[in-house]
């Protein structure tokens, strides 16, 4: 997984909890490398261990933590890739174009980057399905990111996000709907 995701996880833990929680988390996850940088790709296993330990420490489920973390990631991801965002987009448009713009760019930056494939079907101006496909089985993170995107566009109150298949699969269908 891209170092940016680890760097943001570190910041998430430091801001939601504190620095010593992060150190404790690294220790519990048996990781010595305290720092990650955005130029490298790190083993997915490290992320699973960190989130797994965080779940034990907080009493939240790994899925809940993935969702919260996904929501937290969005402003930074938007900032980093702002050149690819079109000013006329709102939540559903942005989701519709993630695969062909942002994730495409992420894949081109480094052969080791493997963001999930998001097959998006726009059913109407107010509804779409995201078919998430990834061996990482992190669709809970995707659900959190969708919530974060809705918040970014000030649509948190009107956007409904609902996984329609089990959240732990390699393929998960997520329904996103705007209620007017
Ligand atoms: C500004 C928009 C976005 C940017 C810049 C972005 C960027 C990234 C990057 C850099 C990674 C790490 C890839 C790797 O290490 O191989 C990633 C992973 C991921 N992205 Fe995105 N992303 C964006 C939007 C989205 C959206 C809208 C969703 C969900 C609908 C999403 C779902 C995910 C998930 C779930 C992962 C974790 C890896 C996996 O499940 O296989 N991303 N993204």
UniProtKB/TrEMBL annotation:
Annotated protein name in UniProt: Heme NO-binding domain-containing protein
Domain Heme NO-binding: 2-160
Molecular functions (GO terms): heme binding
InterPro entries referenced in this protein's UniProt entry, alphabetically: H-NOX_domain_sf, Heme_NO-bd, NO_sig/Golgi_transp_ligand-bd
Superkingdom classification of source: Bacteria
Coiled coil spans: none
């Amino acid at each position: 997984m891209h170092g940016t995701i680890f760097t943001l996880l570190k910041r998430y833990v430091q801001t939601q909890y504190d620095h010593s929680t992060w150190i404790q988390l690294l220790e519990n996850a048996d990781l010595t490398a305290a720092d990650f940088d955005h130029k490298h790709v790190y083993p997915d296993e490290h992320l699973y261990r960190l989130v797994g330990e965080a779940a034990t420490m907080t009493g939240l489920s790994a899925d809940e933590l993935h969702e919260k973390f996904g929501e937290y990631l969005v402003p930074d991801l938007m900032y980093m890739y702002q050149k690819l965002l079109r000013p006329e987009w709102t939540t559903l448009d942005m989701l519709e174009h993630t695969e062909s713009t942002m994730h495409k760019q992420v894949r081109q930056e480094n052969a080791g980057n493997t963001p999930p494939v998001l097959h998006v079907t726009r059913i109407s101006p107010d509804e779409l399905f995201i078919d998430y496909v990834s061996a990482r089985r992190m669709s809970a993170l995707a659900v959190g990111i969708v919530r974060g995107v809705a918040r970014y566009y000030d649509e948190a109150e009107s956007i409904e996000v609902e996984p329609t298949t089990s959240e732990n699969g390699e393929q998960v269908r997520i329904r996103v709907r705007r209620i007017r």
